[in-house]
Specification:
The protein is α/β, with parallel strands linked by helices. It has helices at about 25-40, 120-125, 140-150, 170-180, and strands at about 1-10, 45-50, 95-100, 110, 130-135, 155-165, 185. The structure holds pyrazine-2-carboxylic acid. Its EC number is 3.5.1.19.
Length: about 190
């Protein structure tokens, strides 16, 4: 039995000052860094996902509806796509990037940066059976990543204080949905 921590999309564009900021983005980045320093050693691996858009079609809009279309964010190789500076990249074993040419809310659509492997087979190759999930945004990518993790057969815990929502009410509803799907909310 082995456990992974999955840090979802804690990228500058999703934090205050970014193009699609969540109110608690900076706070969550700080909480995650503190957690990595105090508890990171308890995980068999720590991975991070990144929204990494090149040309994601209608996912970007000048007139976004904030449901299916969004302001330009996390363009590949831009500062906005970088992981928040509070988080020490040395503490993360692998990065999984997603959404090059489409919308991709789930971290399980992400491919490792150092080999052509999706997140689920990468974790399973390391005998990971349990995953803890933190990150941004509770109502979008954390939700989709959590639901996929359950479908992939992992035991899933969501560390909800270390998650930031675009919309607080939608975030609360998403947490309920994740719980109903089988995630343990911690
Ligand atoms: C996200 C909205 C649009 C997220 C990504 O990371 O939760 N939200 N693209």
């Amino acid at each position: 039995m082995a456990r992974a921590l999955i840090i979802v999309d804690v990228q500058k564009d999703f934090c205050p000052g970014g193009s699609l900021a969540t109110a608690r983005g900076d706070e969550v980045a700080g909480l995650i860094e503190a957690y990595l320093l105090s508890h990171g050693g308890e995980y068999d691996t720590v991975v991070a996902t990144q929204d990494w858009h090149i040309d994601p079609g209608e996912h970007f809009s000048d007139n976004p509806d904030y449901v299916d279309s969004w302001p330009v964010h996390c363009k590949a190789d831009t500062d906005g796509a970088a992981i928040h500076e509070r988080i020490d990249l040395e503490l993360i074993e692998e990065f999984f990037r997603k959404g090059h040419y489409t919308a991709a809310y789930s971290g399980f659509e992400g491919t490792a940066t150092s080999e052509e492997l999706l997140l689920a087979p990468w974790l399973k190759a390391r005998d990971i059976t349990e995953v803890d999930i933190v990150g941004i945004a509770t109502d979008h990518c954390v939700r989709a990543t959590t639901l996929d993790a359950i479908k992939e057969g992992f035991e899933v815990r969501v560390l909800s204080d270390m998650c930031a929502a675009v919309d607080v009410h939608a975030g609360d509803r998403a947490l309920e949905e994740m719980h109903d799907a089988g995630a343990l909310l911690v």
